[in-house]
Amino acid sequence: MNTAKAHCRTDRKYSGFHTRLRSYEPNQENFALKHLYNIENTKEILAKLGWTREEIKEAKNHISIDVWPYIVRFHIPKWVPISGTALYKQTKSISRFISKKDFISALMERNMSQADLSLIEETDEWYILKYKGSQAEDHRLLLEDGNITCSCHAYNGISQAFHQDQYALKCLMKDPILAGQIPDKHILSAWQYLKCHCMESYSWVWKKIQDAAIHYLNTDWDEVSDE
């Protein structure tokens, strides 16, 4: 709810780009606003800016998040209304631009903190891992050269978010850790399982796994057993 309010406060004028992102509803979900430029990622960014937990708790009720083509603007006025009254109170204000790279980092760090390699299981196929989800809902992780995809709804939503914001997608492609990888928590769990810390290390591990699988498939196991 706070995320939705932050994107459509009636006392704020938003950029044309932001308005276009909002216009995806109701026919298509506004993935970028919900999955990338949301309150949860904003809280991470404010914490890095030195805001306390109490200040962030108050801020999420009043902040406006205005997405521009190449940057994002945070705004909280100095005086905010007291709920249920006609009175105003003074609060910690902000009016500054935030890099879209910061939102990508916040998303990655949040999902990395929720990653759990103990829920990753191998399958009969060398290029497929399984994430044991809650309520017996398993997610299929497809290991590809330079990328991992996941069958979960969150992966689809984050992926669509970057397709709705092409500059954010460029930032994702140039990120020194992700290098284009969608930072879904199931995928980051797979990275932990494979002992990878970035796309470069994942690509190296993937090649080793592929080589081992090819060697196994090309081996005549009858001859080996005869020896």
Estimated helix fraction: 40-55%
Largest sheet: 4 strands, antiparallel
Number of helices in the DSSP assignment? 11
* Shape field: elongated
Order of helices and strands: HHHHHEEEEEHEEEEHHHHH
- Low-confidence sequence ranges: none
Cα end-to-end separation:
67 Å
Arithmetic mean pLDDT? 91
Q: Which structural class best describes the helix and strand composition? A: alpha+beta
> In percent, how much strand structure appears in the residues?
15-25%
The strand line-up of the biggest sheet is 6-7-8-9
Annotation, overall tally of beta strands: 9
Please tell me how large the radius of gyration is. Answer: 22 Å
Explained architecture:
The chain is an alpha+beta fold. It has eleven helices and nine strands. It has helices at 2-6, 16-22, 31-36, 39-48, 53-59, 100-114, 153-164, 166-174, 185-193, 199-218, 221-226; strands at residues 64-67, 72-76, 79-81, 88-90, 94-98, 120-122, 128-132, 138-144, 147-150. The strands form three sheets. It has a four-stranded antiparallel beta sheet. Helix 4 crosses helix 6. The radius of gyration is 22 Å and the shape is elongated. The termini are far apart. The relative contact order is 0.12. The model has no long low-confidence stretch (mean pLDDT 91).
